[in-house]
Design a protein that fits this description.
This protein has 642 residues and is α+β, with helices and mostly antiparallel strands. The protein has helices spanning 2-17, 28-31, 37-46, 48-63, 72-85, 87-100, 191-196, 200-223, 235-239, 242-261, 290-305, 309-313, 325-358, 378-398, 403-417, 423-428, 432-435, 449-454, 470-483, 500-509, 574-585; strands at 66-69, 103-108, 129-134, 138-143, 155-160, 168-170, 175-178, 226-231, 279-284, 367-370, 489-497, 522-532, 549-551, 557-562, 566-571, 598-602, 621-630. The protein folds into four domains: 47-225 and 285-375, no CATH class; 226-284, no CATH class; 378-459, no CATH class; 488-638, Alpha-Beta Complex (Cyclic Phosphodiesterase, Chain: A), CATH 3.90.1140.10. A hairpin with a 7-residue loop joins β5 (155-160) and β6. The longest helix has 34 residues, at 325-358. It is flat, with a radius of gyration of 41 Å. Residues 1-34, 319-323 and 438-481 have low confidence and may be disordered.
């Protein structure tokens, strides 16, 4: 380490006398990019701000690390191998070296390091170490000059300087280089400088230097915040004799003693015009505007380095309505770009050796993603989970995805997002048929509510794709197949009543012995015997973001009979009226003189029940997304109440 200490002393001494990037200083090589090891280390270690500018991007790239996409056992092996090799910390170290001029991983295995290293030659534990070296410890040699070669401008071997020992040769397959951005062509750099690329430290040095100089200038200014100027009559005459000098020193000491002890200035006021006495002036420096000037210099540094001012300076956002979210969002985009374009290629060069050293079964099938750089807050996670569940609920209400497939997808989603820790292990203990809400013994037979209940299902879901309902599953499959073909045909469109339980409770309280199941309660939007292209119907722009239409409590409502024996709740809803009209204009038909939004309660009204005397259900009616189905003219025969 003696050479580093000596170099640092010399470099720091040089830096204190000369600006290493100034042409006037005569250090043209620094401007040209030949930033020596001594200057780089001296600059990095002597400036806390420069260290932050280099270290922050390096730390953020390795902060959250990576998520392996493999089975649980293989992931455990890989993460254990990464921990054994200290790969995460060493990646950060190599990224810091990239910022100061360049660095590399050296893959250490048993045997001769001068020989080529192939992934197939690595067995479990075969990667002995991954060591990090700077560009000044390893020298690329004998560059390929053949333009037709895929290794053009790449070294044929590296040489590690061992100090007093003989230089050691290393094959390029064992070296993973962390290099800077490519240097523009048509420059006068040598092969080594061109190979290692641009240096981040060189890019930001001047801006950091300006920030450090401004800070140092202000600190010196603080020392002079209060100036005491003492005017002494006949000062030169007093200094002409030893006694005068002694009296002056005693007088100054007395004034200083009063300043430090009593916070008061003691001076001789004089006795008249011929004896003016001492004159003492107290000057105060005005610091207004200086903090803003210092911030402007640091903001320039933030712009040059690409690091948000708030992160670089460790300060909260300032200004009206300032949150800093935009700056940080841009910063994480920048970090992600560096991860993908600079760090990932280096790690992917290492991974084939790492995976085989970890002893995984199928290394070629394993891949990884960067872990999210920003972790959502608990509130954000809760809101995201709520929105996802509402979207899934809309899929269920729409009946457009078979429930078995939907159950598998939802369980995978919950497990991958980590919403419910332990869910995967708990589900593994449940038979697959129960896990996905289906029974393999179900042959699609009786869908009577009592039969469904006997099989462990929910009678309210009869005919609606409920648990254990083979007919419902077939209906969903038929609907999906039907909608994939836009050939015009008779069309039925409905919206399920999502809060049907409220309406059923009202009906039972008002004397209805039976009602339609909750899953069958709906409002018809279109009953078209005329063939119509369903794709021309479009979407209802009046529905909310969940695809629902809400009829608020109250308003015109009536309980009446329709047709022969249907008892319905009629209500006013202009949104449904206009949607029905839109569909008619798009080619649909309607069998009745007018469209009347209603929900059918029952086809079996009790004898003696005076419907005209009933006070209609007055609560909110919440209807789910539109369901498009082929028109079933035999629907009455399938109606069953409960």
């Amino acid at each position: 380490m003696a050479w580093i200490t000596d170099s640092l002393r010399g470099a720091i001494d040089l830096a204190s006398r000369l600006n290493p990037f100034s042409r006037a200083g005569g250090v043209e090589t620094a401007i040209a990019g030949h930033f020596t090891h001594q200057l780089a280390i001296a600059a990095y270690m002597s400036s806390g701000m420069l260290r932050k500018v280099i270290a922050i991007p390096a730390a953020d790239r390795a902060q959250k690390w990576r998520d392996w996409q493999a089975d649980k056992d293989d992931i455990t092996k890989i993460e254990a191998e990464e921990k054994r090799l200290g790969l995460r910390a060493k990646t950060k170290e190599a990224e810091v070296l990239r910022g100061t001029g360049g660095g590399a991983f050296i893959l250490v295995t048993a045997g001769d390091h001068d020989s080529p290293l192939t992934p197939d030659s690595i067995g479990p534990g075969g990667l002995v170490a991954v060591n990090v070296v700077s560009r000044w410890e390893i020298t690329p040699k004998d560059f390929e000059k053949d333009l037709a070669s895929p290794n053009y401008r790449q070294p044929t071997y590296f040489e590690v300087n061992g100090g007093e020992k003989t230089a050691q040769r290393i094959h390029p397959s064992r070296v993973v280089c962390f290099r800077g951005d490519p240097i523009p062509s048509a420059t006068s750099f040598d092969e080594i400088e061109t190979f290692w690329g641009d240096c981040r430290l060189l890019q930001v040095f001047t801006a950091v230097q300006n920030s450090d100089h401004t800070q140092a200038w202000f600190v010196e200014l603080v020392k002079k915040a209060k100036l005491l100027r003492i005017g002494i009559p006949d000062l030169l005459d007093m200094l002409s004799s030893e006694e005068g000098k002694r009296n002056l020193n005693e007088r100054i000491a007395l004034i200083a003693s009063g300043e430090s002890t009593l916070n008061a200035t003691v001076y001789r006021s004089g006795t008249g015009q011929d004896d003016p006495g001492e004159k003492i002036d107290d000057y105060q420096i005005n610091f207004s505007g200086i903090p803003a000037f210092m911030d402007a210099v640091d903001q320039r540094l933030a712009a040059v380095s690409g690091i948000p001012f708030t992160k670089l300076m460790g300060r909260s956002p300032a200004g009206m309505n300032a949150t800093g979210e935009s700056d940080m969002s841009n910063w994480w985009d920048t970090v992600g770009d560096g991860q993908e374009n600079e760090t990932r290629p280096c790690l992917e060069q290492l991974d084939p050796f790492l995976l085989r050293s970890a002893g995984v079964s199928k290394p070629d099938d394993i891949w990884w993603l960067w872990a999210p750089l920003r972790k959502p807050t608990e509130k954000e996670e809760a809101e995201t989970f709520k929105l996802l569940m509402e979207a899934i609920g809309a899929l269920i209400d729409g009946g457009m995805v078979p429930r078995e497939a939907l159950a598998q997808a939802v369980q995978n989603l919950i497990e991958e997002r980590g919403y419910m820790p332990g869910l995967a292990d708990a589900l593994k203990k449940i038979p697959e048929a129960e896990r996905y809400g289906l029974s393999p013994e179900d042959d699609g037979g009786d869908d009577d509510p009592s039969a469904i209940q006997a099989r462990g299902g929910d009678p309210d879901l009869a005919g609606g794709g409920g648990s254990g309902s083979g007919a419902a599953r077939r209906a969903v499959t038929d609907a999906v197949s039907w909608l994939s073909d836009a050939t015009p045909r008779p069309l039925y469109v409905q919206r399920k009543l999502l809060n049907a339980a409220d309406l059923i409770a009202w009906a039972k309280e008002n004397g209805f012995a039976t009602t339609l199941p909750a899953s069958d309660m709906h409002v018809t939007v279109l009953y078209s015997r005329s063939p119509v292209d369903p794709m021309k119907m479009g979407r209802d722009w009046r529905e909310d973001e969940k695809g629902q239409i809400i009829v608020r409590p109250g308003g015109p409502r009536v309980i009446e009979k329709l047709g022969e024996n249907a008892v319905v709740l009629r209500f006013a809803c202009h949104d449904l009226d206009w949607r029905h009209k839109d569909m008619i204009e798009a080619g649909g038909s309607h069998d009745w003189p007018e469209y009347m939004p209603h929900v059918t309660l029952s086809y079996e009204a009790p004898d003696g029940l005076d419907i005209d005397m009933l006070k209609p259900f007055n609560g909110a009616l919440r209807f789910g997304p539109e369901i498009f189905e082929p028109l079933d003219l035999d629907w009455k025969r399938k109606v069953k109440e409960q």
